[in-house]
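note to self: the first set is below, dont mix up w the second
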Amino acid sequence: MIDMREPDPDRFSARQWPDWSFWTDPRGGGSGVHRGRVRSVVVNGLMMGFLATWVIAIADGRYGPVRTGLVFGFLGCYAVAYLLVLWFGPLALRRQRIAMVAAMFALGATPALILGSPAYLTGLTYAIATGLMLLPLRISLLLGVGAAVAQIAWMIVRDGVVAWGQVLTLVAVTAILGIVYALTFTIGHLRLAREQIRRMAVDQERQRVARDLHDVLGHSLSTMTLKLGLTRRILETSDNTDAALAEIRDLDDLCREALSDVRATVSDYRTVSFATEVAGARMALRAAGVHAELPAAADAVAPELQGVFGYVVREAVTNVLRHSDAQRCVVRVGRDWLEVADDGTVPAEIVPGHGLTGLAERMSAVSGSLEHGRGPHGGFRVLARGPATGGAA
């Protein structure tokens, strides 16, 4: 009984059904794959010239017109069926593949039975080749061995001697056709894999740019909004133009910094400093009227975590500014951990957005982890752990 279970696609197995789906994958090479499919049919069709020697040998009239006509008819059907199987077989369902291979063996063995000669079982070469193309390797190999054994047994029973040249012809031509199919199959999958790698590289770069732009613009625009609001209130409620000008200068610096960050992000040259992000968080929280408790120095953080912890501070503080009514924000750090907590209102259901999802990806890239949710004393807490953290922060 044929095993219909799905094997692991990433591991070769003799039970694995040949997967020719790349022939129909619209993203897997398009016209190039179509040309490869046509080329395979043409090359294998030309190899059917082996049957021309049979036509010449049978046409001498020694088998009589009836048997000769029947044999020619079956040979013609055999050749046409072979070409049709080459074209449609790889895209057929498994039960259809089994039916195609069975029909090929029936058509290939019939001329030998009509003529009563085991020599013509050599024609089963093409039926065995379709088995190699459509069936699991363990089944197609058994069919090939079975055909060779049947030919040898018939020769012994009929003539008492084995014509090893004919048997070797069956084996050799089958091996050649099997190699042709294997090369076609391998080249097609390599082309598809190359196309998939190209698409994955493009997608990863798009995700990187989208994530970095979200981190850069989210924080910068939130801080600018707060600065603009503070400047407007100063101008509306007092004549303190010096304070308003100071806020406008900060806005000018923020705009230039954001523009520089965007350019660096697009060109993949942007680097993040934990110390810089802490300084930016201090300015943004002060502008929002949030009491900030920040680390005095960034030296306590491991050098390899400086960049990713900078992103955590940036995104966590941005969330405090945008989504929270917090009055207090605390940032605590260790060598391989970072905690950002506030005392704002936390919704009953917390759905992580693009920012927290991006932070989780960044922490995963350095073998770390990210936790977020309601803090032990209320408010929202973000806890980042580096790869060396063994317990809770």
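second set (the one i keep forgetting abt)
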Amino acid sequence: MSRTRALAAAALLVATMLISPAAAFYSSKGPVVELTSANLKEKIKGSGMMLVEFYAPWCGHCKALKPAWEQAAKALKGIVAVGAADCDTHKEVAGEYRVQGFPTIKLLYVDDSTGSIKTVDYNGGRTAKELVTFALDKAKSLAMKRLGEKADSGSGSRGAGGGGAGGGGGGSDNGFYQGTDVTVLTEDNFKSLVAKSDDLWLVEMYAPWCGHCKALKPAWIEAAGELAGKVKLGAVDCTVHQSVCQEYGVQGYPTIKFFGQNKRSPEDYTGGRDSGSIVAWGNAKFAAMVPPPEPVELISADVFGKECIGDSSGAKPKRLCIIAFLPNLLDSKAAGRNRYIKTLKGLAEAYKDKPYSYLWVEGAQQPALEANFDVGGFGYPAVVAFNPSEKKYTVCKSAFELAHVKDWMETMRMGGTGAVPVHGALAAPSKLAPWDGQDAKEEVVDEFSLDDILNEEL
């Protein structure tokens, strides 16, 4: 063969190699459905449910998975479809389904109510048996859901969510948070308790087998107690209540989301996993979103119970009750009284994330209560901080101006004001008529003539 002909033959061979399609990773005649950017959604909707591998042909882990994947596809034939998408060729598929590594395995199914395609991440073992068990569990769950029943999820398969392939165990939460201050959330109660409520919620989406979730558990329970009355803490077991976790795009465990005023767009929590960090973060959200408590006129024992010491209606004792005994209306006029109340409002704004209440009453109108706190008789306004749980109080010695009272509050919060026990049994406040917001009406004394006295017959 001449040199020219040899070069031509070599060029032809190279050209043939360049234009010939590479051998398919999975045979078109095998049980694995070949998925592309053009047919993926059509295939999923046609089958209703499909276990899908997102792979790259050069990936060593994908090559290692291939025999088990084909075996699982053969076993599930006619039950659950099994497909594979070459993300090296169809990069848009990888982007749409948030594929960040190879192989990524997801269960894709059609949502009955919307017709959209939903996904469940798989993070279990890579044997054919584990893959088949997972797919059958999910098929059973979907079928039972269509019947309005709950599937028995005690098979122990792994999956749903994210957070690594090392976990195991599905089924119920096995009492993970039962009996604690953490609200156990499910597919049945999530919308009514969280999505449609006016409450602020921090929700942990977890898996019982997840090591990070187990490490978080004590702090989550402690924070739930600390934030009671301000931010509710809940938890969703994603291995059982998968639709909730799918709806909020859970990619790993634990995922924590804050459901504030806009429940449709919850905010990711990215703070520390200790109780102190969780409580501080929750308090900051509470302070930002919740208006400060209004100062309340202390006109009855019912008001005192509800706003300060707790009562039979379920109101809990406040950590501190700030009680201002104000000057007589004849002395301060309405304008002066409103300035004092405005100072209380400023204090409430500064500490609105704290479980404090703010009360006021005209001086000498609740004498028994004043005696409890050793104030009254003179020196109004007098401001008292009362701890109803410990039955201790401290009196502000500064001028009743916002800057001075805030300094007193900070010193008190640091334990520097010398709280003392109340004097005697705590009095029940008397019932008073509420202030009408007007100046006091001065009593008019009838005038008399001095002549009447001088001319009076003795």
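remember for set 2: The chain has 14 helices and 16 strands.
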